[in-house]
Design a protein that fits this description.
It is built from 17 helices and 13 strands. By secondary structure, it is an alpha/beta fold. The protein is globular, with a radius of gyration of 20 Å. Bound molecules: uridine-diphosphate-N-acetylglucosamine (UD1). Uridine-diphosphate-N-acetylglucosamine binds next to α1, α2, α6 and α12.
Length: about 375
């Protein structure tokens, strides 16, 4: 049973569903409905050829407690009726921890084991909802599938036995490498009148950057400063759009080129052609490293340090200032684009989902 709920889950689940099919295993997909807009969810099913979910829980947006609780209530009967050998939860969103908790508590009754895809990432920032979700999901899991070797010491430090951990690499990069040729054909940058390597793509949605007016203002002023040098395309997450309006910061969007959330293929096409990407997303830090595009991350730290040590990522100085963001952009621009795969860590090779399926089979009784 594969679980997906929010936008960053879909590109991780897609290659696993296909690899399970190829190996002759049966799988069912549960969509929790945490994300529900066409742009945040349905378009990913089309772009990534994911089968329609067998179960749609339709929970939608709410506070953390209500959203997590609704997912748990709706997931429990599905799990009890299906009793799969495995539940596989990806990433670190509320859907991940909600379904993990249900699965681990029903284990005695269902015999179902729990696997966490993208295990072992740590920001060590307990204020982030995603960090809470990651740590607790790992603690509940029978099998921890890690995307990079830097995850291993994090898990060992928490006392997780080595035989529960399997290195599989980065499944999200399976999807990226599979879709890149078709994404390039879409030539979204050219359609927007932008030349390859001559513009910046930005994304912003972390609560720490967008839920506080002063922090959001700094981020937008930083992007405005970059826009004096090159066009900046900001794809606006629904959370950020709401906050910009609520805080009366709309005028700071004026120097930027604003789009709605882009579909997977459009975003990949655009990021692949960018000079630099500025982001607070976890997934985009990994995608830019795989594409060899320089990335500036607007966070105090990253749970994906391999993108700093081996990849193309760098952190803007903390606490963020508009000047610090712009200076880090200048350094990233000087670093330049290095091409697909030139700086990819081990296991970011398009075969991670195969290894995940092998690990599941090996850990099965
Ligand atoms: C969630 C994840 C985050 C991930 C991000 C990617 C958690 C704790 N956070 O944050 O890790 O990086 O998704 O997008 O799970 N909304 C819409 N349409 C949608 C979905 C959401 O308009 O399809 C609006 C809702 O009104 C909501 C807001 O966006 O208030 C935030 O959605 P939510 O699911 O709470 O968290 P994200 O900020 O998207």
């Amino acid at each position: 049973m594969l679980v997906a709920g929010a936008r960053p889950n879909f590109m991780k689940i897609a290659p696993v569903q296909k690899a399970l099919d190829r190996a002759g295993h049966r799988s069912v997909l549960v969509h929790t409905g945490q994300h529900y807009d066409d742009k945040m969810s349905d378009s990913f099913f089309r772009d990534l050829d994911i089968r329609a979910p067998e179960h749609h829980l339709g929970v939608g947006s709410a506070s953390h407690a209500v959203q997590t609780a609704r997912i748990m209530e709706a997931f429990e009967p599905v799990l009890l009726a299906t009793k799969p050998d495995w539940v596989l939860v990806p990433g670190d969103v509320n859907s991940t921890i909600a379904c993990a908790l249900v699965a681990v508590k029903l284990k005695e009754r269902t015999g179902t084991r729990l696997a966490h895809l993208e295990a072992g990432l740590r920001s060590s920032d307990w204020r982030m909802p995603e960090e809470v979700n990651r740590v607790l999901t790992d603690r509940c899991s029978d099998l921890l599938l890690i995307p990079s070797w830097d995850a291993l010491p994090n898990l060992e430090r928490e006392g997780i036995e080595r035989d529960r951990i399997a290195f599989v690499g980065n499944v999200m990069i399976d999807t990226l490498l599979d879709r890149l040729p078709a994404a390039r054909e879409r030539a979204i940058a050219a359609q927007m009148g932008l030349a390859t390597g001559e513009f910046v793509v930005a994304t912003l949605h972390r609560p720490s950057n967008v839920d506080d007016p002063a922090a959001l203002e700094v981020c937008l002023r930083g992007l405005g400063a970059i826009a004096q040098d090159r066009p900046v395309v900001l794809t606006l997450h629904p959370r950020t759009a709401k906050q910009v309006e609520g805080f009366g910061l709309g005028k700071l969007l004026q120097p930027l080129c604003i789009t709605e959330p882009l579909g997977y293929m459009e975003m990949l096409s655009l990021v692949d052609a960018a000079a630099v990407v500025v982001t607070d997303s976890g997934g985009v830090q990994e995608e830019t490293t795989a594409l060899g595009v320089p990335c500036v991350t607007l966070r105090e730290q990253t749970e994906r340090p391999v993108t700093l040590t081996e990849g193309t990522n760098r952190l803007a100085p903390w606490p963020l200032t508009a000047e610090g963001i712009r200076n880090t952009y200048v350094a990233a621009l000087a670093q330049g684009r290095v091409g697909v795969g030139a700086k990819s860590p081990e296991g970011w090779d398009g075969c991670a989902a195969e290894r995940a399926v092998e690990a599941l089979a090996k850990a099965s009784p």
